[in-house]
From TrEMBL:
Protein origin, superkingdom: Bacteria
Organism in which the protein naturally occurs: Noviherbaspirillum autotrophicum
Annotated protein name in UniProt: Membrane protein
Pfam families: DUF3025
């Protein structure tokens, strides 16, 4: 049994990754297959170096992970779910991953010391990389309702809008790892994106490419934790069973708004 065998690829949140993952999980050398796919799409980092997935031992002692990717194009990758999902995200949202690495590398270069205080930009970029969900909405009032923790409005009163006026794409590889063994309290840091009518009429592949580009442009202006809003992902319509009134009344998961508090995961 291999480490990724427990993944249930029929889960709705994994739909955007199935086609990419299929050849990887059936390959006798999954890392080689990931590298072949990266080469096929011409995946390069912000310095123009080809992104390739290397064993963890390739990372020199004392060198920051993100600085290594920036300097070499190599992504240290262990034989575990965490790094496997990280590789899938590189292949699915390559521009966003490149931009996040560029942000991290620039902040590390500024600090000129390892280890050093991460700073607000690195903290926000790390949260994005590990736990973000990309929340694409047609109506800004949906974002406002989420920020207000008005779960009833979002998940019950406006339930019909999901799929037609609201789209959620997982990005954080730690978030995806947690969802291999789902539990109700799993909460993403949602990154809101406003989209027009044309987005919701696109094929899935075109949607993904559009999101990759627009979020990359957003991150080019920086990344701050105030940009996120909490999203209990198993509350998304159709993502879990038993989503009745009592399900959403669970305040241990669907928490009331507490001013001045940041989200916890």
């Amino acid at each position: 049994m291999r480490f990724f065998d427990p993944i249930d690829w029929q889960r709705p949140w994994l739909a955007p990754f199935r086609a990419t993952a299929e050849s990887i999980v059936h390959s006798p050398d999954w890392r080689a297959t990931i590298n072949a796919q990266a080469e096929q799409i011409g995946l390069k980092n912000h310095r123009g170096l080809p992104i390739h997935f290397v064993p963890q031992a390739s990372l020199p002692r004392g060198m920051a992970y993100e600085a290594f990717i920036s300097a070499t194009g190599g992504v240290p990758t262990r034989e575990n779910l965490h790094d496997f999902f990280n590789a899938l995200v590189w292949l699915t949202f390559p521009q966003i991953k490149v931009q996040l690495n560029a942000l991290q590398a620039a902040e590390i270069a500024k600090s000129n010391a390892i280890p050093a205080a991460r700073g607000k930009v690195r903290d926000a970029a790390t949260i994005f990389d590990e736990n973000a969900a990309l929340l694409v909405v047609r109506d800004a009032s949906m974002i406002e309702a989420l920020r207000a923790h008005d779960w009833r409005e979002v998940f019950i009163e406006r339930r019909h809008e999901f799929g037609q006026r609201c789209d959620v794409w997982l990005f954080g590889h730690a978030l995806m790892e947690k969802l291999v063994s789902p539990y109700k309290a799993i909460t993403a840091h949602a990154w809101p994106v406003l989209a027009g009518d044309e987005y919701f009429g696109m094929p899935q592949r075109d949607k993904r490419v559009w999101i990759d580009g627009i979020v990359t442009d957003q991150l080019a202006g920086g990344c701050v934790t105030a940009g996120f809003t909490p999203l209990p992902v198993l509350g998304l319509p159709g993502w879990w069973e038993g989503q009745d009134q009592a399900f959403y009344a669970d305040v241990s998961v669907f928490r009331p708004k507490r001013e001045g508090k940041t989200i916890t995961v």
